[in-house]
Amino acid sequence: MRRILIIDDEDDIREVAGLSLEATAGWVITTASSGAEGIQVCAAANPKPDAILMDVMMPDMDGPTTFRKMQETPGVAGIPVVLLTAKVQGVDQRRFAGLGVASVLFKPFDPLTLAQQIADVLGWPSV
């Protein structure tokens, strides 16, 4: 059973993404409403999440900054991160890809296919 941490400042996105991943794939979902909270939740989790689905645009600490801090955090570094963004410009896509994240998925997402998209980009079996 996969464990996914969803980090997004929007309650609706956390709820829809979490429910869709639970319902379509049976994954165990943990959520955080900010980058700082996400790092704390992830560092304290036992077992650790198998992957992190994280929004790019968040107040205080955005997704790319949170990702960089995660890579410096023992026990958190190395967990695959999939960014979720409404930014679809080519320059943004290249910047995100250059970070070293596992993938970038785009909002709005289809709740019925989100789990399969994540499984595909992480090389996991079909859900």
The proportion of strand residues reads 15-25%
Largest sheet: 5 strands, parallel
Mean of all residue-level pLDDT scores: 92
Spans of at least 5 consecutive residues with low confidence: none
CATH superfamily: Response regulator
User: What oligomeric state is this?
Assistant: single chain
The neighbouring-strand order within the major sheet is: 2-1-3-4-5
CATH architecture: 3-Layer(aba) Sandwich
Reported by name, the CATH topology is Rossmann fold
In total, the number of domains comes to 1
- Care to count the β-strands? 5
Protein name: Response regulator receiver domain-containing protein
InterPro entries: Bact_response_regulator, CheY-like_superfamily, Sig_transdc_resp-reg_receiver
Domain Response regulatory: 3-122
Modified residues (4-aspartylphosphate): 55
What does this structure look like?
- With 127 residues, this protein is α/β, with parallel strands linked by helices.
- 40% of the residues lie in helices and 19% in strands.
- It has helices at residues 11-25, 35-44, 63-71, 90-97, 114-122, and strands at residues 3-7, 28-32, 51-55, 81-85, 103-106.
- A five-stranded parallel beta sheet has the order 2-1-3-4-5, with helices on both faces.
- The protein starts with a strand and ends in a 5-residue tail after the last helix.
- The model has no long low-confidence stretch (mean pLDDT 92).
State the main characteristics.
single chain; 127 residues; alpha/beta; Rossmann fold; 5 helices; 40% helix; Bact_response_regulator; CheY-like_superfamily; Sig_transdc_resp-reg_receiver; Response regulator receiver domain-containing protein
